[in-house]
Write a structure and sequence with these properties.
The protein has about 260 residues and is α/β, with parallel strands linked by helices. The chain has helices spanning about 25-40, 75-90, 110-115, 130-135, 145-150, 155-160, 170-175, 185-200, 200-235, 240-250; strands at about 5-10, 10-15, 45-50, 100, 105, 120, 125-130, 165, 180.
Length: about 260
């Protein structure tokens, strides 16, 4: 069974990541999401719901011992991360508006994936978390530009610099969530919002969306390159080794500042 599927509900396309429970991503999964989004546009869809099967939306990337976002390429973590981020750019640049149905964890790169969407629906179990500072390295997935754009500079800094965990109600208050859903209804509410988008004039929607996202898209590749530079530098530190090990062992890290 494919780990990413594409189905249609009228003019709304459902792109689903199907690797539960955590729905970790790698380069191939992100490429499949981008492929599905591009195919949806070619097949006449007018909006996309990005959803995941199981308990969590996306708990980010599986961490290699080096901190690389792709354990299959731990010998060259920068190249592995660059390959992942190349696919992230494709997701940001999809033609159609995207609504993310976020249940459970949207953590690290999973938060980045949620922030690549135009809108986010959250439920009682949802938690948004930029956990990079608690792992000991720089944020990625262009969160340095996408998150401040969504929630503002102060709220983004608080999330990024502390690793703050944000629940659905808090996310709604700061603009990270656009709608709240009852337990298990995140996808239903996301599909309803996508149907509203699909009912509007498609040329006008796409035109205004390009205008609204122009600043974001112009900065994505430069942001990813800078994030990758900083990640590569910080992956070599003792703090990163401590943070990643502590995360894998499910305990609190004690950082040394070196």
């Amino acid at each position: 069974m494919s780990r990413v599927t594409l189905t249609h509900d009228g003019r709304v396309a459902l792109v689903e990541l199907r690797d539960p429970p955590a729905n970790f991503f790698d380069r191939d999964k992100l490429a499949a999401i981008a492929d599905a989004g591009e195919q949806a546009s070619a097949e006449g869809a007018r909006a996309i719901v990005l959803a995941s099967e199981g308990k969590h939306f996306c708990a980010g990337a599986s961490l290699a011992p080096t901190g690389s976002v792709d354990g299959d390429s731990a010998s060259d973590p920068r190249a592995a991360a660059a390959a992942v981020y190349e696919q992230a750019v494709r997701i940001f640049r999809l033609d159609l508006p995207v609504v993310a149905a976020v249940q459970g964890a949207a953590v690290g790169g999973g938060l980045g994936l949620a922030c690549a969407a135009d809108f986010r629906v959250a439920g009682p179990t949802t938690r948004f978390e930029a956990n990079f500072a608690r792992l000991g390295f720089h944020c990625g997935f262009a969160l340095s530009v996408s998150l401040p754009r969504i929630v503002g500079e102060s709220a983004a800094a608080r999330m990024l610099l502390t690793g703050l965990r944000v629940n659905a109600e808090e996310a709604l208050a700061i603009g990270l969530a656009d709608r709240l859903a009852d337990a298990g209804e995140e996808r239903t509410v996301a599909l309803a919002l996508a149907a509203d988008l699909a009912a509007a004039a498609p040329l006008a929607v796409q035109s205004m969306r390009r205008t609204l996202r122009a600043g974001l898209l112009s900065g994505i590749e430069a942001a990813l390159e800078h994030e990758l530079d900083e990640q590569e530098r910080l992956w070599q530190t003792e703090d990163a080794a401590l943070g990643i090990t502590a995360s894998l062992e499910r305990r609190a890290p004690v950082f040394l500042g070196r």
